[in-house]
Design brief:
It is a single chain. By secondary structure, this protein is mostly helical. The protein has one domain: CDP-alcohol phosphotransferase transmembrane (TM) domain (Four Helix Bundle (Hemerythrin (Met), subunit A)). It is built from twelve helices and no strands. The longest helix is centred in the middle third of the chain and has 34 residues. The chain is globular.
Length: about 290
């Protein structure tokens, strides 16, 4: 298999990859994966290392100096490269696990919380109006969380329908719940049970935010080619709210010591983008018809 073919095999699907992932983070991640492919390093170990780098980046932001902001920005870039690497390695080696997938999501939220607390300590506390900037930072963090839920949902729904894979909102969730129940009966696997519980709760929240179970049932039986045709543009527009785009924006603002622009960008510009996209997505969903059966 050629190097290009191996790289493409390490991706989920180009249509659901963020722009900065495709042109920067994932190529670097792929080179890292190739370097460690024959070692015993596992995707979960990479996830933990990436999380530690992200947490250290949050500490750098808390220190607040221009040099520490640059260090935090560099660490966030390294975090995102490794965050891409764990999934690529799992797909190439075909050794990914359900728990690993959940751990990856949990680590992202741990890093997000740490980074936002760091920005609050290093930027908001040092400003002329700490109360205002803490409130704005909380609004930015909540906005980021909602955007992540929306992007994650529409990305997974796109993959579910177009690739004809098991829906992460129906059968897959039931499988996770059944696995957790079995672990509970065995009386062990406490960490895995915790991760599965977090994932199930997060997925149910996604379901409520993105219009409810009736829409999910309707989309689950949509004709794949028609779904792809109608959604291939808007899914790319949703991806501008994705985590890699948000991290890249934060890195740029940190390099120029302008955390105020980052916070305003998330609270005003990113939310406005979501408000514009949401009705168009709902219209597309309502126009989709179930696939015909032979």
């Amino acid at each position: 298999m050629s190097l290009r073919a191996q790289y493409l095999a390490s991706l989920k699907m180009r249509e659901v990859e963020e722009f900065f992932d495709l042109v920067f983070y994932r190529p670097l991640a792929f080179l890292f994966v190739k370097a460690i492919y024959r070692t015993d390093i596992t995707p979960n170990q990479i996830t933990v290392i990436s999380m530690l780098l992200g947490v250290i980046a949050g500490v750098c932001f808390a220190l607040g100096s221009a040099a520490m902001l640059i260090a935090g920005a560099v660490l966030l870039v390294a975090y995102d490269v490794l965050d891409c690497s764990d999934g690529q390695l799992a797909r190439l080696k075909k050794n990914g696990t359900r728990t690993g997938r959940i751990l990856d999501g949990v680590s992202d939220y741990v890093v997000d919380v740490t980074v936002y607390i760091g920005i609050g300590i290093g930027f908001a506390n040092a400003s002329d109006d700490p109360a205002f900037w803490w409130l704005m930072l909380v609004a930015a963090g909540l906005s980021n969380a909602v955007h992540a839920i929306l992007v994650d949902y529409y990305r997974n729904r796109f993959l579910d329908v177009v690739l004809g894979r098991v829906s992460t909102f129906e059968e897959d969730l039931q499988a996770f719940e059944a696995e957790r129940d079995e672990m509970r009966r065995q009386g062990d696997h406490y960490f895995d049970r915790l991760l599965i519980g977090i994932y199930v709760g997060y997925s149910r929240l996604q379901s409520r935010i993105t219009s409810g179970s009736k829409e999910h049932n309707h989309l689950a039986v949509a004709e794949p080619k028609e779904y792809y045709r109608r959604n291939r543009v808007i899914i790319r527009l949703w991806l501008f709210l994705g985590p890699t785009t948000q991290i890249t924006f934060l890195v740029i603002c940190a390099l120029f010591n302008r955390m105020d622009i980052y916070i305003y960008g998330l609270v005003i510009a990113a939310n406005a983008w979501a408000v514009v996209l949401y009705p168009f997505q709902s219209l597309i969903n309502h126009r989709l018809k179930p696939a015909t059966t032979s």
